[in-house]
Amino acid sequence: MNKEQSLAAPDPAEDLSAKILAIADHADMDAFQSLFQSYAPRIRAYLLKLTRNAQAAEDLMQETMLAIWRKAGQYDPARGTASAWIFTIARNIWIDAWRKQRRPEIDPNDPALAAAPEPDAANQMEMRQSHDALHKAMQTLPKEQIELIRLSFFEEASHSVIAKQLGLPIGTVKSRIRLAFGRLRTALEAVK
């Protein structure tokens, strides 16, 4: 190729970038059709190597082309070539499809997914009585111990977090919680 011919022939990479930018800038259908005609077979062949399934490769190619149309505005020529951007989209779509395929289907009849049955009236009454007894027993504790139990068990704060929050040594927090439980046990026995 001589100098004059090289000036006249467009660079395929620049042409591809220009097509993607035209799609991004003004939804150029001609640019997309040209891109589709030149890249759809390449993408299909690439995906066929990955999937080893002609129908899956065709479906994923269609999904890739749709993603190129939607994501054309995200293409940045400064970050890499247009063909690398296109094949990265294809690879990511293949990975997503592979992950979905590997994920087991959820069985709606699985007992683990069933809601816990409502407790019967006797159990509800027993739970209410236990709640009331605990509430009465907690009222017999000093405020500092109630605060320690609240932080530790209702807010699920660790002993070190409680120590920092209250400005106490961790050993003091542990011993006060143990003391609070001892008093609470005694108070619960008295309430029953």
Tally of strands: 0
Name the structural class: mainly alpha
The N- to C-terminal Cα distance equals 101 Å
Q: What share of the residues does DSSP label as strand, in percent?
A: under 5%
What is the gyration radius calculated from CA atoms? 34 Å
The CATH topology of the largest domain is Rna Polymerase Sigma Factor, Chain: A
What is the string of helix and strand elements?
HHHHHHHHH
Could you name the CATH class of the largest domain? Answer: Mainly Alpha
Unreliable stretches covering 5 or more consecutive residues: 1-9
Q: Provide a count of the helices.
A: 9
Q: Estimate the global geometry from the Cα principal axes.
A: elongated
Overview of the structural elements:
The protein has 192 residues and is mostly helical. The protein has two domains: 10-102, Rna Polymerase Sigma Factor, Chain: A (Orthogonal Bundle), CATH 1.10.1740.10; 133-191, Arc Repressor Mutant, subunit A (Orthogonal Bundle). It has nine helices and no strands. It has helices at residues 3-8, 12-26, 29-51, 54-71, 82-102, 121-139, 143-154, 159-166, 170-191. The longest helix is centred in the N-terminal third of the chain and has 23 residues, at 29-51.
